[in-house]
Amino acid sequence: MEYLSKSAYAASRNWSKPWVSKLAKQGRLVLTPAGLVDVAATNALIDKTSDPSKASVSVRHEQERASKGHPSADPIGPAAFLQAAPGDLSEPGGLRPDFHKARARREHFNAMTVEADFYKNQGTLVEMSAVDEAAYTTGRLLRDLLLAVPTQIAPELAAMTDAWGIEKHLMASIRRALEDAERISTADLRHSLSIKKDNHAE
């Protein structure tokens, strides 16, 4: 195994000393108790936590900023980044998250979002809040319609003496109430979904 001082490691990678110091502050250098850089482990860690499509540009820009004494352009430090990252993105041993896993996770959820938007536009996927609201409204409507039936038909039933006739009258009244609830609840659901869709489009 090869161990180098920070300055020697910087020279071996053709990097500036300030850039290597920045890597150390980010926790991207694997150091021995004596403060030497474990070359193989550090190279592996840097490769894992770097964006391969932007690595060369990032290195050049950071070297230029560091050589001119400018502060880093990173919006947050490594500690804050690790605290904000989802738990399953962190590597064992407290290492920084694997860039490739993070990018794959991001692309996965981006694809899921696009797919969900597609099904919403097709009308095959709706928002749960709209369905919950319509279900609650339908339940209240059905309750009110059924509770109104006795008041509506009580005078008619009072004048009836035939049990079969009373049963038929009750069934017809209840059926009308249920049919009214079905028509109104369907219209209410469509109205709720159209409002949600319009709000989502805005």
Automatic annotation (TrEMBL):
It comes from Pseudomonas fragi. The lineage of its organism: Bacteria, Pseudomonadati, Pseudomonadota, Gammaproteobacteria, Pseudomonadales. This is Terminase small subunit. Residues 50-78 are annotated as: Disordered. It comes from the Bacteria.
